[in-house]
């Protein structure tokens, strides 16, 4: 196990660092068992497990933040529990009750509290719940055994540019999810589908791919591992689509935008609207807000300049600061979003 002393909190990227413990829970004979603690990074899994062959695999992502007051806050974990339940319904896995999900988060934080980065570092502890089919099948069918586990790893910014605007690309040769497929679920297959285009985009100097709807290629879906938003005339505009992940961050930003007096529109966003946005960004747990510098449409050879001066816009900045302040306990938690740990 890695010693936390070896970690330089403020230069952490979004990588995997081993921590002390993870927690696990098995579903067998039709019921979830008790939480178990493990100090091993390894899992043992039958070679005929459905997660390996037929993609019965779901994950979640959320973060714990240590505040200036020393207290630890986890942002909206009930939302992640609910989304995991939705994913389970989507790919026929047993739903994990919210209380058990929260118990696992509490436990894994307690066991790894010295890996929660200090306030000053601006880093956080990424929490990764995973639920996989363990049961053996060769015919295509759901498993009869499952494993839920949660591990944690300290992280910094996901996009190397952090809160600096970065360029993104449209590439119509790749889809991430089909309109009636699994795009609204957090399953590994969606990420497998995005790997090739994501790596290609990075090689070309872009921080992410902006996926368009797979059917018509006319509307913006999302930005790699994050939702999309644009700002125009004091309005926060974000796509409504049947093939994107319902983002907890985006849902929160919609509320914060409203709190700040902006109008909020969640509707199909035509790709041509990119020419009209005063600001735009990618948002998610890992991405937080990653402002968009420009969007290059690599098929139609068009370029949409979003940030004229290369800086994040004022509304994106205000939203970013408000969100981070709530997460770190520097701004009142008016919406009851934070799960607070007084003594971790
Ligand atoms: N979209 C995709 C494809 C993601 O992987 C994520 C990350 O979880 C998001 C959006 C943002 O969702 P959230 O804000 O809940 O992290
Ligand atoms: C997250 O923001 O939690 C994600 O899941 C994005 C990525 C690391 C998969």
Give your account of this protein's structure.
- This protein is α+β, with helices and mostly antiparallel strands.
- It has two domains: 152 residues, 2-Layer Sandwich (D-amino Acid Aminotransferase, Chain A, domain 1), CATH 3.30.470.10; 163 residues, D-amino Acid Aminotransferase, subunit A, domain 2 (D-amino Acid Aminotransferase, Chain A, domain 2, Alpha-Beta Barrel), CATH 3.20.10.
- It has six helices and 18 strands.
- The strands form two sheets. Strands 1, 2, 3, 4, 5, 6, 7, 8 and 18 form a nine-stranded antiparallel β-sheet that branches.
- The model has no long low-confidence stretch (mean pLDDT 96).
- The structure holds pyridoxal-5'-phosphate and 2-OXO-4-methylpentanoic acid.
- 2-OXO-4-methylpentanoic acid (COI) binds next to loops.
Query: What fraction, in percent, of the residue positions are helical?
Result: 10-25%
CATH superfamily of the largest domain: D-amino Acid Aminotransferase, subunit A, domain 2
Question: What's the number of domains?
Answer: 2
What's the mean pLDDT score?
96
CATH class of the largest domain: Alpha Beta
Tell me which ligands are bound. pyridoxal-5'-phosphate, 2-OXO-4-methylpentanoic acid
Distance between the termini: 20 Å
Order of helices and strands: EEEHEEEHHEEEHEEEEHEEEEHE
Number of strands: 18
Shape descriptor: globular
- Given as residue ranges, the uncertain stretches (5+ residues, pLDDT < 50) are none
CATH topology of the largest domain: D-amino Acid Aminotransferase, Chain A, domain 2
Gyration radius over CA: 20 Å
Structural class: alpha+beta
